Amino acid sequence: MAWYDEAVFYHIYPLGLAGAPKENSYGEPEHRLNALLPWISHIKEIGCDAIYIGPLFESVGHGYETTDYKKLDSRLGTNEDLANYVAECHRQGIRVILDGVFNHTGRDFFAFADIRKNREQSPYKDWYCNVNFYGNNEYNDGFSYENWGGYNLLVKLNQHNPAVRDYICDAIRFWVREFDIDGIRLDAADVLDFDYMHALRSVAEEVKPDFWLMGEVIHGDYSRWVNEGTLHSVTNYQLHKALYSGHNDHNYFEIAHTVKNLYAKGGNRPDGLKLYNFVDNHDVERIYTKLNNKAHVTPVHILLYTLPGVPSIYYGSEFGIEGKKDRFSDDSLRPALSLSDYADAVEQNPLTRLIAALGRVRKCTPALSYGDYRELVLTNRQYAFSRNYNGASVLVTVNNDDSDYVMTLPAGDAAEYKGALSGERVSVSGGSLTVTVRANAGEIWIPVTEAKEQNGSETPADSVLPTAAAFTEKEAEKKAAAEEAPADRAEHAPLAEAAKARAKDAPAEDASFERGKIAGLQEAILAIMEKNGPVTDQMRKDVSDNVYHDSLIAWIKSFR
Q1: To the nearest whole percent, how much of the chain has pLDDT over 70?
Q2: Residue 361 CB neighbours (<10 A)
Q3: Which of 466, 484, 502 corresponds to the end of one domain?
Q4: Using CA atoms, how far apart are residues 418 and 443, in angstroms rounded to an integer?
Q5: What sign results for the dihedral spanned by CA atoms 172, 175, 178, 182?
Q6: CA–CA gap between residue 23 and residue 17 (Å, rounded)
Q7: Is residue 237 a part of any domain in this protein?
Q8: Which of 6, 29, 7, 34 lies closest to 18 in space, CA to CA?
Q9: Residue 346 is assigned to a structural domain of this protein
């Protein structure tokens, strides 16, 4: 067992949260990172004990075109500021993970700058892929090179070059030595060479006990990356997609099938695949924006915190803020926020209060970190499962319907259960537990003996489950906006019609799962496109019109 097995993450995009300029002037350092210090106590208050923050190092613009791996971006401050930030996190019991952008660099990185200056005579000409001194590009360099996703601002490193590997491995050692970090999130891990990742894993095991490597993988068989030789975890985009569309479509089959498949990939063991679970991040729209019924944020987050994996909250989403992708910019997903605007959120904001409670429950319920997974009830609108560990069976129930629903569940050896979010107590009868799951809500049922040990008290807590009325106002705003923009609803019509045709003769469960897989592949393609540059309406239409599994898989592979 390692610290990350029990972690609850808080994800920060620092250039956005700190309100940094969009372009780096490489001037005197501006100590914006220090403005994020007060957030640490907030992060701890809502039950998170690990921070994934990045990108942080000197870059041209959005942070992923690195120009110096050993210097904090001057828009954020100095290396001393970063060391102090990590030290304060550690003082408050919070681990820190940084973004490692090791697939490509910016054009101002010293090695590429030397190639521009010295061309064939540069000792770094083999640090990048397919440098061709007979070619040219839009920068008129007098040579061409392989880039990341068709974007020449991002120059692709030659991961097979031992000098490149040594440099990156030394950068990791530097980060641990200078900043005392606890792990790295590997950007674009799904296109990193596996031998390259093996080298990074060796360094991880060298620099610090339980040093964590997590990779960004948009689509694929996660077990290729998560194993003893490469990474500890990867981003769970499959579950991300299932969580919001499974609620928007009133289709818990999609979520349950996704979980079952991933659990099987890990050998049907709770320690098989410890994936990094999230409902939004700096590349995708906010969950509060995506959900058609705002009240569904309650069951969505209950599942985020209770399904197998490591849960993560993206900064600001604990307040229920909106964030919708713009055609040419992700700025709305990465806003500057002032913590003072949310000073009373844990007491006054129903979603923040729920997330804080879920963090506490997660920490005092080992079964949610280490327990096995067993599906108990599954309909389109209701879903229940158990997490079993050391003889304790924790039961999780969710309901995406507008009406309450009664469930009867196998209860193990316990005589009584307590709702961790509502405080309700229910007795076991004949080995079964019969509970009412509130409309558009859910509950985590903990054996009372277990609850006594964890909470030190038998007194039920006040319910932290938000009421549907708490989301009525914003839901009304969304409906009004939808009426003003009917074209948005028509955007996905080709996909919907094609999916219906494909599912006509298929069983309901299989058809729902297939539709979910197709939509997940389409989203993966759009996510890659959006990382590479502007995505036009025609490009979006081309993706939505393609509803063929093999064709979509081939499309994804074409980006690599």
Answers
A1: 85
A2: 23
A3: 484
A4: 10
A5: negative
A6: 15
A7: no
A8: 34
A9: yes
Strands 151-156 and 104-105: antiparallel
Straight-line distance from the first to the last Cα atom of the chain, in angstroms, rounded to the nearest whole number: 35
DSSP codes joined into one string, 324-338: ---SS--GGGS----
Q: d(Cα 456, Cα 451) in Å, to the nearest integer?
A: 8
The answer to whether 498 touches 547, Cβ cutoff 8 Å, is yes
Of the pLDDT bands very low, low, confident and very high (cuts 50, 70, 90), residue 266 is very high
| Buried b or exposed e, range 525-542, using 16+ CB within 10 angstroms | bbbbbbbeeebeeeebee
pLDDT band at 413 (very low <50, low <70, confident <90, very high): confident
Measure the CA–CA gap between 546 and 85, rounded to whole angstroms: 46
Each residue of 540-558: pLDDT tens digit? 766 776 766 655 665 665 5
177 pLDDT above the threshold of 50: yes
Q: Look up residue 70 and give its two tokens.
A: 């050993």
- Please check whether residues 456 and 512 belong to one and the same domain: no
Question: Is residue 416 within 8 Å of residue 425, measured between CB atoms?
Answer: yes
Question: Global pTM?
Answer: 0.86
User: Which structural domain range is residue 510 located in?
Assistant: 494-557
Same-domain status, 442 and 514: no
Alpha-carbon separation of residue 533 from 105, 153, 239, 539, 557 (angstroms): 16, 11, 25, 12, 18
What token pair was written down for 80? Answer: 């001393």
Q: What is the mean pLDDT of residues 460-489?
A: 61
Q: Rounded to 5 degrees, what angle do the CA atoms 370, 376, 378 make?
A: 120
> Does the pLDDT value for residue 515 go beyond 70?
no
Query: Do 505 and 542 have their domain in common?
Result: yes
Closest to 144 measured CA to CA, from 122, 123, 165, 115: 115
Look-up of token digits 């319910």 = 463
Residues 504 and 395 in one domain: no
